[in-house]
Amino acid sequence: MACEEELTTLLLHIGEDLVEGNVRELLYLIGDGIPKSEKERISTGRELMDMLIKKHLVDSNRLERLKSLLSGIDREDLKVQLEPFEQKIKSINTAKHSLTLNGLVPNFIKTSQCIEVEERLKNEQLAILTGISASGKSQICIWYASEFQKNAKHTAYKLMCQNEDDLLTSMRSFLEFLGMKFERQKEAKDVYIKHMAEVVKSLTESGNKTGQHYLFIFDDVTETTCKVVELIIHSFREAQNVKIICSTSYSKFYEQCTERNVFVKVKGVSQAEALQFFKEHVKMNNSQDNIQALAIKMGYLPYGLVLANSYIFTTGVSVKKYVELLTRKDFLRKVEQLTAGTAQEYDKGLVSAQMLTVDKVESSSVHIKSLLNFIPFLHHNEIPTRLLRKLLPENIDDRDKDIVILDFIANVKKYCIGEIESTDQTETISIHAVTALVLEHRLPLEEQESSIKALLCFFCKNISIDCRLHLTFTSNMEFQPHASKAALRAVEMESSKTKDCTFLLCALHAAIGVTFRVGGVESLLADENLNKAKALCFQLINENDPESYMLTAEERDSLENTEYVDESKKTFRREDLFQVFLQETMKNEQKGMTSRKTELENEREKCRQNARAKDSKAETLYKRLVEVPQQLTKGFIADIVLKTERSEPDLAHLVEVAGFTGTLKEVDERKRGRLSKELYDKLLTQNLAINRDQLGSICVVELMVIILYNNGRHHYYQCQSEQQLFLVCWNELRLAYLLGELLQEHYSDFPSVQSLITRRNGILYHCLLSNQQTNESGEESGIVLDKIIRQYEKMLGAEKSEKYFEYGIIKVSHHQRLHHDAMCLKLLLKCYTNRMKDGPEKDQHYEDGKKHANKLEELLKDKRMCRWLAVPGFHVQIARFFFEHEMEKAIIHFKRAVELEEEYSLQRLSHFKLQGQFGLIECYLSRKEGSDLEDARGICELLKRSLHESNFQRSYHKVVKYLEDISNHQRDINTGMGESTLTSKRNLSHENQTIIYERASKRKPDAWKYLQKSNDL
């Protein structure tokens, strides 16, 4: 080719003018790729230049050094002659570079994606590699080229395609390399390139006659070059001796291609392949889990793994430390600079490539830029577009929000920085791990903290702490992974130590913990978040020892008062004054005695004061909690409460009780799930909301009640197998009740719905917990249960006009009471189920309980009930009630519970689904008709596969025990064993498998003292 011949002639001429000293100075130009023995043989300038030309070592960097040297020996004339060749050499080297293993990163691993490329080129002669920038596409191209060129008649060429100028230069240089001179450009670039391509095609066709084969690599095809490259590909594919590889980060490249099997998506290596990128020394000194964590952090990109391996091997840092260092700004860029020898051949690093892509995406819209600022602090996998839409500023019109999200999705697809997944109900975006890392590092620390705090506020407003509706539960679960990531990152901030941030973290962990507990899907995560929320709530009052507000075992024992004897010298349990008062009240009600009402009220207040004498800890805690809002930014909590997103049924309920027609602005706010100022003002005038100044105090106390109650409920099931949790659970339920009572006393016009829930549900669980810890007779246990039954019957018969509030805003009224009545009936059935276990009156208890079961069945027919998450639990409780007397009915309800949970699309095992399946197994084991045992075995085998032994250890072992019982029953049937033995074994199995009620007991605290009240509701 012309320009190369001119350069060769010039270099040889320069060589002749170099003296021996100049030659020694220039030997370093050759580099380490030439054996030392060959270097030693070079003595003249001509020999030096021959070597440079022969080894293709004349590049722009060496040319610059040669020019400097010529200046040093006063040969400016030769230097001037070299300058015109500087730009041409860049083009020549790009076009003629022989793609050998020198272009591969060290220790390149042949991955499954390499095999895919081989198959595509073997079958289709074409492979198009798509994926994120710097994901290893070019490395795969280089690897295949090196394999391709092992055949002497195979030649590979790489054409740069970042823009039309690059492609034009590559094509021109390629033709010049072949000794052809092309006319000057007189037409549009794309047309000129097509004409060049036709010439190249004719040359390849002539080469076909001599058995010559060609591989063309169109590297880094972009939006500007995609059309012309598509035309070239279409033309070249007609040649039998040409293979083509294209690499691109532009997803729309070659869209019209109907042969989808030519595409290879380069997303990163597999988990098993990731380990192969690390030297044995690194793998020996670091755990496999840490290496996998690093691979996840780097998105399994081969180049990122190579950089990590090189840095770790060279510096000796641990993999865990390397992962920590990745959080530092510019660390990854510095790693690339330090390990430059391992870099890919083209001048495009991992970080810089991502930065360029991000710049392109964010330049499309200021709103897209704001969304990109949030991405690093969300869980970058499966971000719901609904979440991104809500993160946009509220002053943007809904239609404009839709346009922004569509534009964002288009850019994610266009530049391959993530993937879009759509189902019938949701659409999610998964951003690549390295992109998320770069997005974070480009933000100054102040902007990072601002984004994280904004996310905390957002999630506190959009993750509802009342998730009893399917709508709110589903929304909470959708946002939870992203809220948890934001909370985790918030802890790392310096500003997280402020009271405002502590409150946000507390409220957020509480909402997440309650969601997991109510949904019954993740016991460990419920435990983790509720305990964090509890610790943070005590941190708000600067208390490092929450246990100081709980009763010790000794203090608890002092409440029992059992060592007294009556006139007949018989031992009995002396009730406290509050309980005596309640018994007196009940007797008076039965006799119709109301004349002593004033006297009884005075005595009631006296009893309450006496009871409080031992509860100063609760009062102290209450006083400290109501002072918290004063330590926060003024109005901070009120803003969170009033701007919290509310479900459509909740807002409709507020509008109904307020009798509010609403302005257009208010209706628009309601569509967004917000309580408008107009509606709030209307609620204030009707005493259906508390004023803004008092919202903070109510909110903090109610938040503590929610945390303690839910912690207690969660620990209730745990302490069935872990006795050390008994006192914790007992204390949490008790303290939640007492704080709720104090809240109701101070804000009597705004009774808390959480106090209602704590009193309603807590009564039973607290007393059952106490019964499990005492060696009392069945009669004494029955007395307590009878008292609870009367209490629930009173709740059901209470005035329908009662109102209850959540954070000072009306929550429950006569308009919305269905769920409360259903819960009372469920808890009544739980009491009657326990009363029917033994005793001469079990049949009577069954008849009494059956009336409530029938009422609950009627309630479940109401279409409004389908909105509630607890409905499967109602079916489970009805089934347990009918278990002994009407087995067929029990089976129907157990099946219905399982069906409902499956209809709700819960992918994971929920508590109610598990209990429904356990109930069916018990029914089949008890009935043992026809194929019952096989049905029971089928359910057990399904559960055994579904349960993770470490997370659901108790349930897993329960399933294993069921399988043993089923095998024993089947063996007994096959051997003709008598029915009496089968019944004995079956009863033993049932006793061993009961989750809630069976527990060896030691003592019974007088729980009723704190959990009864004469005029509930």
Task: Briefly summarize what is shown.
The protein has 1017 residues and is mainly α.
- Output the structural class: mainly alpha
Number of strands: 12
Per DSSP, what share of the residues sits in E-state strands of 2 or more residues?
Answer: 5-15%
- Do you know the CATH topology of the domain at 112-268? Rossmann fold
Q: Report, as a whole number of angstroms, the end-to-end distance.
A: 98 Å
Oligomer: single chain
Named CATH architecture of the domain at 112-268: 3-Layer(aba) Sandwich
As laid out across the biggest beta sheet, the strand order is 2-3-4-1-5
Helix content: 55-70%
Query: Which regions contain 5 or more consecutive residues with pLDDT less than 50?
Result: 94-102, 341-347, 560-595, 978-1017
- Radius of gyration (CA) equals 38 Å
Averaged pLDDT, please? 78
Q: CATH class of the domain at 112-268, please?
A: Alpha Beta
GO biological process, one term: regulation of apoptotic process
Pfam family, one: DED
Organism: Mizuhopecten yessoensis (Japanese scallop)
Domain DED: 6-84
